Amino acid sequence: MAIAKAERLMNLALCLLGTRRPLSKRELRGSIEAYLEAGSDDSFNRMFERDKDDLRELGLVIETVENLEGEVGYLARRDSNRLPAITLDAEEAAALGLAAKVWQQARLAGAASGALQKLRAAGLPEDVDPYGSHGALEPRIPVHEAAFEPLMLACRDRRPVVFDYRKASAARPETRHVEPWALECWRGHWYLAGYDRERGAERVFRLSRITGKVRARGTGFTAPVPDVVTVRETVAGWAGETADRSALIRLRSGAGYPLRAKAGKVRELGDGWDELEIPYGHGLDAWLVEFGPDVVVLEPAELRADVVDRLRAVAKG
After folding, report:
1. Contacts of 88 (CB under 8 A, 6+ apart)
2. pLDDT tens digit string along 151-187?
3. Contact 102, 139 (CB under 8 A)
4. How far is CA 289 from the centre of its chain?
5. 190: closest CA among 227, 155, 161?
6. What's the CA gap between 63 and 55, in Å, rounded?
7. CA-CA distance, 67 to 226, in Å (whole number)?
8. What DSSP assignment string belongs to 295-312?
């Protein structure tokens, strides 16, 4: 159904852009196969009005013109629907080249290279080499997770997905039905933000914990997409980086270097253990569980209880 509608919209746009005079509804119906197949005049009128509104929403400027006989016609003048010529200075071209180099290790490398070739043909300064080896910056965004590309396409197309997800505190993955909003890289890891249908709330998923294939499930979202999706802020809060409290833990010597990097205070206890004071924020219990027997929570009591509950859940399988 989505492909049929897209084809119908494209045909209508081509008709309106290709005509030199306004075309009436009757003429448009006789020119587009999908309209000829409409069961009745009412069905055609509803379909045409929806298509016309959709094209205008996509940015096509459609004029409505009434001739001397009072018949209404439609056309889309080329001069009203032509983008201005692209002109880039050296700094703008360098910024685009730098952005394209980010994706050279991902499957988007071909698209990025093709986009730069089109910009070069449209006026990219010849003295700018966006792939020059002399640049001081060599940005790279690692994309090793197989789930990245299908999720990126699902975010773009607003298409719900299903995948198996293993939480840090769980022994087995669970099936999640998600309406994907945005992908973002934070501290070398990719995260997906979206609406979890089973839980009825926003959730953030780390792509490295997605197991198996990402499958598309139907079309259309049931929850509104927020104007701003704060993936990094959410993950940082879970990691305790926006915490206003502290937790006291015991950490085995030579282990848990990410915890040591966040610690405000470190004290050697002897017998192979250290005592650390670390920021305490939402989700710290799930993070501490990842270190297994190398971490013992001393305080606060509620954090210790949460960690123990998670460990028991893992032990039960």
Report:
1. 96, 119, 123, 124, 125
2. 988 988 889 999 999 886 677 889 999 999 988 877 6
3. yes
4. 28
5. 155
6. 12
7. 45
8. EEEEE-HHHHHHHHHHHH
